[in-house]
Design goal:
The complex is a heterodimer of chains A (about 525) and B (about 160).
Chain A: E1 2-5, H1 10-14, H2 17-30, E2 35-38, E3 52-56, E4 59-63, H3 71-77, E5 88-91, H4 96-99, H5 117-122, H6 127-133, H7 137-147, H8 159-168, E6 175-180, H9 189-196, H10 198-212, E7 216-221, H11 226-241, E8 257-262, H12 272-279, E9 303-307, H13 308-312, H14 314-320, H15 322-326, E10 329-330, E11 333-334, E12 336-343, E13 349-354, H16 359-366, E14 376-381, E15 388-390, H17 400-405, E16 414-419, H18 424-438, H19 444-461, H20 466-483, H21 487-491, H22 493-502, H23 511-515
Parallel strand pairs in A: 1-2, 6-7, 6-9, 7-8, 12-16
Antiparallel strand pairs in A: 1-3, 3-4, 4-5, 10-11, 12-13, 14-15, 14-16
Helix pairs in contact in A: 6-10, 6-14, 7-8, 7-10, 9-10, 9-11, 18-19, 18-22, 19-20
Chain B: H1 8-18, H2 25-36, H3 44-51, H4 55-64, E1 76-81, H5 84-88, H6 91-102, E2 108-109, E3 115-120, E4 132-134, E5 137-139, H7 144-157
Parallel strand pairs in B: 1-3
Antiparallel strand pairs in B: 1-4, 2-3, 4-5
Helix pairs in contact in B: 1-2, 1-3, 3-4
Classes of the chains: A alpha/beta (about 525), B alpha+beta (about 160).
The structure holds flavin mononucleotide, iron/sulfur cluster (SF4) and FE2/S2 (inorganic) cluster.
């Protein structure tokens, strides 16, 4: 039977993949051709979605973007044999966007059936866990520390150190919590992996459990991700059935239980302590630190809390060794980062690369420049709390320290591009507005300051006492930077001040006044 | 305003099946909203007593989270992404069009009860901006024209 692949990824679905899949079934039945339709994850080349692939003796041939009404013509052209057609893209693996990547964490995404455990096992799945089960807990932690992995959720804290703290904390019950809140705009790598290879996250969390002696895990998933929810639950069920979760995992005598919990549309619940409050059934108010969650986390117990990508990178580290992972990257940024190209780009999508390539390479070599055909003017890196960078900073390498040096952040690796029609004063205003909407309300600078910020920016752009209000905006930003408990209030000044400093003309401020 | 009728038995059933989970309140509220479309204010005392919480705590949680609502929604809920990536691809024009077309603002429901309109801050569909979600289906690269077509198709099928 000929294998045909149509993604079940929610972005592919958002462009009509379901209709395409149905049309292929109908057309095949009509022509009496036996096909096996596999609903894979997305390859992450979103300008080509819905991307249909056909398995041929030469390899998988891609066609895209396919619309349902073109399906019968594809059959006519002989696409099941990989025949020529205007939508034919050749071998999927040879498309430069994909070929030039270094896919470690995303190795299987788009290739396998996301909820087929057999497929996962055939593609090197669960090799990391099998190795971990033969290791002492401290040795597992050492392997992760050796890889140089730093948290991919935003703060880039070394994962090995966090795990060691939990390992060394004595308690009857410990937890592993996966932060799948992915609230940052311009990011979707967590979603892509949960929909495209949920087992790799499950395996990573199970290894984390073995490493620190935690027997219970929760995935805190944002409610905006219904498709990821379904894929995770299907995969968890399959893992339980086959003895990869639950009691006595693979006869090791060790157990690990896993459950998905849904958030409820609060950005701040991506902050780790707010998330823990939410998991406990409370309002998502940020906790004071210390104590660290590693010491007193969920229900007061030692807890590993990591981002989806951090945890999903653990299986390959355990399988191939910490050194293998560490050999990718630059400086203190080791391994790969799944970068998400979003916004006004011709070729938006997921690019997993070793740290070190530049923003410019990503925006033009991968992203293909703007979607609108107009010049790119600004990019926001690292979500809604990330700085806006002008063209003059596009040569910055993807590296935590290089970004910190220009008062910017990599965060969760999202890049949102804007063309020259953008009004940066409006973006700054939106930054403040977002903070006001999402503030948990605990600190005054964040709760009240953000609302003041919107008013002050409105005055600046209306030309009311401009100099005085620009100074006020800077003072206000200082107060937020220094007087906030978490990064929501503490980093909202990044997008706001970077917009003001790099694009003063949009605020009606001349470049000379900017220096004042 | 008179309190809406709500189905006590359903809420009791949901509570019975979920109340023993650690940190049960969010799962319970999701269960209720999934089934009834909202969390009836009249159900708060019942939830509170079953979970050993105060009414104020339950109420506080419902109001803290943007997703939970205490009024019945329209037949379908349209979530429009307001975040940066979608803005870079023209979501403000789309947002304006949607409000005009439906004749409602955010947090409102159309007069015929068909659609509620809610803002959302990123759907993880940023590579296909601008995005909207209708109930649990995401739509990408939504132009004003495409929005009208989607709405037409929904209206025809209901
Ligand atoms: C306002 C706010 C929102 C955050 N949202 C997320 C999120 O959606 N996902 C995430 O993994 N981390 C988020 N973080 C970072 C977490 O607090 C925490 O650093 C992370 O879960 C740790 O995991 P990691 O070490 O694997 O990155 C957020 C932080 C703040 C201050
Ligand atoms: S900075 Fe804002 S979101 Fe963070 S704890 Fe303070 S009030 Fe809450
Ligand atoms: S910013 Fe709109 S879907 Fe992410």
């Amino acid at each position: 039977m000929i294998k045909v692949f149509v993604p079940r990824d929610s972005s592919a679905l958002s462009l009509g993949a379901e209709e395409v899949a149905n049309a292929i079934q109908v057309e095949a039945a009509k022509r009496d051709i036996g096909i096996e339709l596999i609903r894979n994850g997305s390859r992450g080349m979103y300008w080509l979605e819905p991307l249909v692939e056909v398995a041929t003796t030469a390899g998988r041939i891609a066609y895209g973007p396919v619309r349902a009404r073109e399906v019968s013509l594809l059959f006519e052209a002989g696409f099941l044999q990989g025949a020529a057609h205007p939508l034919r893209l050749g071998l999927t693996e040879d498309i430069p966007y994909l070929k030039n990547q270094e896919r470690l964490t995303f190795a299987r995404v788009g290739i396998t059936d996301p909820v087929s455990l057999d497929d996962y096992l055939t593609h090197e799945g669960y090799r990391g866990l099998k190795r971990a089960l033969d290791m002492a807990p401290a040795a597992i932690v050492d392997e992760v520390a050796q890889s140089g992995l730093r948290g991919r959720g935003g703060a880039a804290f070394p994962t090995g150190i966090k795990w060691r703290t939990v390992l060394n904390a004595a308690a009857a019950q410990k937890y592993v919590v996966c932060n799948a809140d992915e609230g940052d705009s311009g990011t979707f790598s967590d979603r892509l992996i949960m929909e495209g290879d949920p087992f790799v996250l499950i395996e990573g969390m199970t290894i984390a459990g073995m490493a620190v002696g935690a027997t219970k895990g929760y995935i805190y998933l944002r409610v905006e991700y219904p498709h990821a929810h379904r894929a995770l639950n299907e995969a968890i069920e399959a893992a339980y059935r086959a003895g990869y979760l639950g009691k006595d995992i693979l006869g090791s005598g060790r157990s690990f239980d896993l459950e998905v919990r849904l958030g409820a549309g609060a950005y701040v619940c991506g902050e780790e302590t707010s998330l823990l409050e939410s998991l406990e059934g409370k309002r998502g108010l940020v906790r004071f630190k210390p104590p660290l969650p590693a010491i007193k986390g969920l229900f007061g117990q030692p807890t590993i809390i990591n981002n989806v990508i951090s945890l999903a990178s653990v299986p390959i580290i355990l399988d191939k060794g910490g050194d293998y992972y560490r050999d990718f990257g630059m400086g203190r940024s080791r391994g790969t980062l799944p970068i998400q190209l979003a916004g006004n780009l011709k070729h938006p999508g997921l690019v997993e690369k070793a740290f070190g390539l530049t923003l410019r390479e990503l925006l033009y070599d991968y992203g293909g420049g703007s979607a609108s055909g107009r010049p790119l003017r600004a990019v926001q890196v690292g979500g809604p709390l990330g700085a806006y960078l002008p063209e003059s900073q596009f040569d910055t390498p993807i590296d935590y320290e290089a970004f910190a040096a220009i008062w910017a952040v990599l965060g969760h690796g999202g890049i949102v591009a804007f063309d020259d029609t953008v009004n940066m004063a409006e973006m700054a205003r939106y930054g403040m507005e977002f903070c006001a909407i999402e503030s948990c309300g605990k600190c005054t600078p964040c709760r009240i300051g953000s609302t003041r910020g919107v008013e002050v920016i409105d005055k600046i752009t209306s030309g009311i006492e401009r100099d005085k209000n620009v100074r006020l905006l800077r003072d206000l930003s200082d107060t937020m930077l220094n007087g906030s408990l978490c990064a929501l209030g503490g980093m909202t000044p990044y997008p706001v001040l970077s917009a003001l400093n790099h694009f003063p003309e949009d605020f009606g401020v001349s470049a000379t006044e900017k220096a004042a | 305003m008179a309190e809406q009728e709500w189905d006590r038995e359903t809420v009791q059933g949901i509570l019975a099946s979920l109340k023993d989970k650690p940190g049960a309140l969010l799962p319970v509220l999701h269960g209720i909203q999934d089934t009834l479309g909202y969390v009836p204010p009249g159900s708060v005392p019942l939830i509170a007593s079953e979970l050993n919480l105060s009414r104020a705590e339950v109420h506080g949680v419902i109001t803290f989270y943007h997703y939970f609502r205490d009024t019945p929604p329209g037949e379908q809920t349209i979530y429009v992404c307001r975040a940066e990536s979608c803005q870079s691809m023209g979501s403000k024009t789309l947002e304006h069009h949607i409000k005009q077309r439906l004749g409602v603002d955010y947090h409102e429901t159309t007069a015929d009860g068909a659609f509620s309109l809610e803002p959302v801050y990123c759907l993880g569909n940023c590579a296909c901006s601008p995005s909207i979600m209708i109930d649990k289906e995401v739509y990408g690269r939504v132009t004003s024209q495409r929005f009208d077509d989607i709405i037409e198709t929904i209206r025809e099928s209901t």
